[in-house]
Amino acid sequence: MSKQEVILCEELESSLTSAIGKCPHDKLFILTDEHTHRLCLPQLNGIPALKEATEIIIGAEDVHKNLETLASVWQALSEQGATRHSLLINLGGGMVTDLGGFAASTFKRGIAYINIPTTLLAMVDASVGGKTGINFNGLKNEIGVFAPAASVLLETEFLRSLDAHNFFSGYAEMLKHGLISTPEHLAELLAFDTEKIDYAALKSMVGRSVQVKEDIVEQDPLEHGIRKALNLGHTVGHAFESLALAEGRPVLHGYAVAWGIVCELYLSYIKVGFSKEKMRQTIQFIKENYGAFAFNCKQYDRLYELMKHDKKNSAGIINFTLLKEVGDISLNQTTDKDTIFEMFDFYRECMGV
Ligand SMILES: NC(=O)c1ccc[n+]([C@@H]2O[C@H](COP(=O)([O-])OP(=O)(O)OC[C@H]3O[C@@H](n4cnc5c(N)ncnc54)[C@H](O)[C@@H]3O)[C@@H](O)[C@H]2O)c1
Ligand SMILES: O=C(O)C(=O)C[C@@H](O)[C@H](O)[C@H](O)COP(=O)(O)O
Ligand SMILES: [Zn+2]
After folding, report:
1. Which CB contacts under 8 angstroms, 24+ apart, belong to 291-298?
2. For ligand 2, what atom is nearest to the CA of residue 253?
3. Which residue, of 93, 152, 197, 336, is most buried by count of CB atoms within 10 Å of its CB?
């Protein structure tokens, strides 16, 4: 898989013009959701390289990251003259970059695409690394391909219109990057003033956070080994997210990941000796900023069944990514069902649900 260009922009117009210039194309498309069409696209007004771009607009949020929306993007490309030599720009959060990336990589067996992430989550995580796809059969990212964007352009000015929930959703993936990288990076994340955001400081932190992901993806783009580190919190987090969606009370991806981290730090503590104090500090931050996902012991089996669909699993065995210490990663960790249920008990007790 080719290494993708990730640019922390000083000036979006020049970075975008240069990125488009590197992708010779016959026709240009720009995909937004209904919110980024209203809030973000106007910020690209007047950029000459986008003058001829055809707009495609989809519904917002993860409920639209599905086959129907995907088909609507294929349909728009097909009906509006896209060829194998066309170029798609995805302007939006992770829902747009995941679905748009998948649409581009499958349309006529693959056209080039550029990501311009507009949420914190998409800047530090979703737009980078080539995982594209949609939710299917009640499961997160069940269908998709690895196909990196030609370029990823990070313009943190877009974050000024993001609401607090989506800020914290992205921040959970940053916490994950802190946990899998260094105690210093984790400490700066836990200490950051999230109530009064210093956008210049946030921009620097976004740069450090996305670098954690880029370094890992470069070593293992197709997730045969170390890339599973980026899935910390997701074995349980995706099960929470799928359950919430099925019960008609969807939660933001990053919130599910934060709650998944609570569970998987507990497993890290009991199975591979993660520090109790670091676990306590991280859980405290999550409790204060994310609240809790409520479930009861009658739902343990359902969550367990959902976890059986995790992509890190093999031969019916649930594999976790755990931590011995901050930055010291233990891949492919297994445990019995009783311990998984004990982990749910721990979560409910410490989160007060
Ligand atoms: N491919 C990957 O590696 C990867 C990594 C992490 C998450 N994901 C996926 O990413 C998705 C979540 O992404 P997300 O959190 O960006 O959600 P999202 O794309 O649904 O965006 C959240 C909301 O914010 C709005 N929005 C976007 N930019 C905005 C802005 N600048 N100002 C105001 N509102 C704005 C969107 O319209 C939407 O309503 C999930 O589907 C998750 O599975 C993928
Ligand atoms: O890039 C990766 O690798 C990740 O695991 C990043 C995750 O934050 C992200 O949510 C990803 O989409 C999860 O992938 P999945 O393979 O577990 O569906
Ligand atoms: Zn994630």
Report:
1. 292/259, 292/351, 292/352, 292/353, 293/240, 293/244, 293/251, 293/255, 293/256, 293/259, 293/351, 293/353, 294/353, 295/240, 295/243, 295/344, 295/348, 295/353, 296/348, 297/341, 297/344, 297/345
2. 10
3. 93
